[in-house]
Amino acid sequence: MKAADILACGLAEIAAHIRDGTVTSRAATEAVLAALEREGAHLGAVARLWPERAMAEAEARDRERAAGRLRGPLHGVPLAHKDMFYRKGELTECGSRLFRGFRPAVTATVLERLDAAGAIDVGRTHMVEVALGITGHNPWTGTPRNPWNRERLTGGSTSGGAASVAARLNFATLGSDTGGSIRVPAAFCNLVGIKPTYGRVSRAGCMPLSFTLDHIGPICRSSADCALMLRVIAGPDPRDPTTGAEPVPDYPAALAEDLRGERILALVGGLGCEPEPAVHHRFEEACRIFDELGAELRRAAFPDGEPLNVLRRVIGMVEPAALHREHVLSRRADFNPHTLARMEPGFAIEAGVYARALAARAGWLERICRELLEEADLLILPTTVTAPPPIAETDTGGDARFVALANRLTACVAPFNYLGLPAASVPMGFDGEGLPLGLQIVGRPFAEARVLRACHAFERATGHGRRVPPVAAVPTA
After folding, report:
1. What is the second-level CATH architecture of the domain 3-466?
2. Which of 58, 115, 375, 472 has its CA at a distance of 20 to 30 angstroms from the CA of residue 310?
3. 181 annotated active-site
4. pTM, full prediction
5. Distance in angstroms (rounded) separating the CA atoms of residues 119 and 102
6. What's the pLDDT score for residue 328?
7. 82 an active-site residue?
C-alpha cells in the first residue's frame, strides 16, 4: 500500500490493516512522520517529532505481530498528540515559553493506556499557550492553519492536533477541553471530537489548566474512530481521584444500534449568541435528518444559558490564574497577550464569587437534567455560531475584541464543561465558502455511547466527514 493510501485510512481502518498484515507498522509510521514533517510544517501544526524512537517502536510492533502477539486494538498505529501530554523524559513545552526545556518525570495515564493498546507516540503538535484559548492563536509558536482554508483559524486550544488529523497527516490525536478545546477545533476542521463526562478519562500526567473544568478526549476523522480511542483511554485511575468507577462500555459495539425512538431535543436559543445564517440553515437540515432517522425530535430554548456561561467564565478565569499566579508575578513578559487577556481578570474575582460559582454547579446540573434530559435522551445544538474566522482579522493582541470573539466561540460549548456532561462535535456541513460547521450532541452523565451512536448515525446519513480538505497529504480525487 502506498503512503497516500495509508494516510487516507481512518484510525480503525489502519489498525485493521496493521493487524491483518496488509500494512506494516513501519510503513504506517514512515508515512505519518514524512507527512507531519512536510505538510505539518506548512500548516504550522507540528511542535516536534521523535523519528528514531518511533521507528524503533514500529519495528518492534512488526516483530511482535510476526510472532503472533498483538498488544491491543491500536497495535502498531502511529499517533501524534497535543504538546501537553507528559511522556517521561521527553520534551513537553505546552505552547509556552514558560515550559521551554521541560522534561516531565512521569508519563500521562492516557499515554500509558495507548501504549498498552499498541499505539506508537511519534511526537507533539502545536497548541494554544498553556491551553488557555479557543481561537488557536499563538504568537510564540505560530498559529496553526486550517487545512480547509489556510487563512482561517483551526480553533483552539487543540489547534495543531486538529489540523494534522484533518489534513490526513495523523490518524487521531488526544486533546483537552476546558471550554470547548476539543469540540471547536473538531467543528472548524470537519472532524469528530468528544469531551467525555467529567471523570470518565484520567487527567494524571496532563498539563493542568482548570481543575474543575478540564476534560481529556480524542479528535478523530469519524465517530467510529473516537469510539475506538475512547474505549482505550477511559476508566478509573488511582492517580486521578476525580475519575469515576463507572464501567467503560464497548463504545464501538454501541454504534451498531439505530436511532428509532431516540428522544432528541433541539436547542434553538437561550445561550445569548444567535447563529450565523449558514449555521442556522445547516442546523435546521440536521434536525430534519434526525427526524428521517426515526428520532423523536422536539425543540426548546436553553434555560438561562447566559448566566450559566458567566459562571463557567468565573471558574475558567480564577483557576488558571491561581495555577499560574507565580508565573505571572515573576515572568509576565513570557506570556503572550492572548493568554493574559483570558487569565488576568481572574486575579480580580473575589473568593466568594468563585465559591458561589462552584457551589451553583450541582443545582444547575440537576436543573438541566430535570428540565431538558428527563424528557430527552440527547440534546443537539450548533457547536459554534460561526464558521472558522480569518486568522489575521482576529489576531488583535488580546484586546476587548479578542475576548468578545472567544466568548462568542464558546457560547454553545462551555456550559457543558461547567456541567461536566458528555458532548461531541460531528461535521454538520459547510457554509457558502466551503468552510466546515459542527453539530454538537450532548448526553446525560456517562452516556458517551449514546452520544457517539447519534454522531455515527448522522455521519452515515450525511457523508460530510468523508470530504477531504484542499490541504491534505492524500489525493482528493
Report:
1. Alpha-Beta Complex (3.90)
2. 375
3. yes
4. 0.97
5. 24
6. 94
7. yes
